[in-house]
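hey so u asked for the seq, here:
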Amino acid sequence: MFFVYLASILRKMKEISLKSIYLNKQAMWGIACIISFFIMSRLCIIYFAALQGSDLVMYTQFANFEYLNELKKSGFDDSQIPINIYQKLQRAHQIITHSYPVLCQQWIKLIGLLKIKYLERSPIIVYRSIACVADVSILIAILMIVWKKVAPRNIKALGQTAITYTLFGVILAPVLYDRVDIFLIALVVIATVLLLQNKPWMAGWIFGIAVLFKLVPIILWPLFLLMLAKWHTPKTQIIKMACAQSALLGLFLCLISALSYWHYGLEAFSFVTFHSQRGIQIESTWSTLLWVLQKCGHTVNVVIAYGCAQSQSALSPVLSTLSSYLIGIILSVYYAFRLKIKIMCKSQDKDLINMQEKDNKSLVFFTSVTLILAIAMACSKVLSTQYFIWLIPFLAIILPRLSKIHYGLWTCILVLTTAIFPFYYFSDIAASSAGPSPFGLSLLIVRNSLLVAATVALFVHNMKQLKRESNK
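ran it, structure tokens below
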């Protein structure tokens, strides 16, 4: 699907008039340098990124266990496999089966198939190369968005977005291609491009695949509805998007669920119970709060459960429940405010609305997407390094058009995030049941404080955007 999408994007790039670019030699040199930087950085990630903290090893073990089960059906005797190796494969299978929806599990099997059936020498490199295709698709998509919607025919803005995306990818290099999240966000970005091209049905189906891949994108669904309803005849667009999303959440979900149940039984839905029962991950803002309280006498310790290190205390169940309610309340209030703005804009003159949408709507939309994801991350009981992969395409679109303070905040957050995991995670964050070392706790406090501050700053900026839009 990514290859097909990439080919269609390249065909549409012909619509961009390159005459103005060729007239500017400085711009051409800049573009050449950016492309070279992107290619070299991604090749280094593919070939040289360390496997410390990588999930690719676990993905391989999961796929090998699935392949082993298939062999057993053909009469293979698994007693020939050393017990320690079999237990590792079984543990990886249990973690992934309980952590991810079935659609995501099938994608993870890909690395095992590459290793077992096709490319025994370098399955890691091949898997990373496939992830790089998704990465390139994201880059081309966001450049098209900037060129056509956010900053039309602005070469400087195009270069700023490309540099930002490439740089943030380099900062997150240890996890960029070694998680499934790059594919998830590629699906979301593709759906966004289709939505901007007024193709709600196609966008709905792609968005549906993303939701079934991981449930996180569902928090963006109301925003997509509001954006689409604001462009054309309101009732028509609302009906079209409602139908697309109904197909997504109805037929598609039922079909995948039925097939999953038929093949896996109730185990196919174990990820729902798994995530609802998870405690507070040690990297989250809530965990940082617990460890700060521990300095005041509150009892906190680290336990390894549900595939990660968690902070456990008497307050953990309360904070775990509170995090879900807090996300729901904040996003509900935010969407209610967005709906109010939409209604106010519709009551104004049509020409004024068209002018507003042309000048501001795309940038406001991507600011809102970034804000929603940031709120979910800052308030969630689970926060991992790979979650920041969700943000970098949208940060690359909006940050060059915001103040340097925003840019600096998010750059520091990403650098500290990579320092926390994988570089200091096993030595200073989760090395002991007694908790993070003073240095590790300092990293967590600074990163999570900056994350909350950056989210608040983005919220304030987005509110100003929306108020200006409603007052015009």
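The mean pLDDT is 80. The CA atoms of residues 181 and 386 lie 7 Å apart.
lmk if thats what u needed
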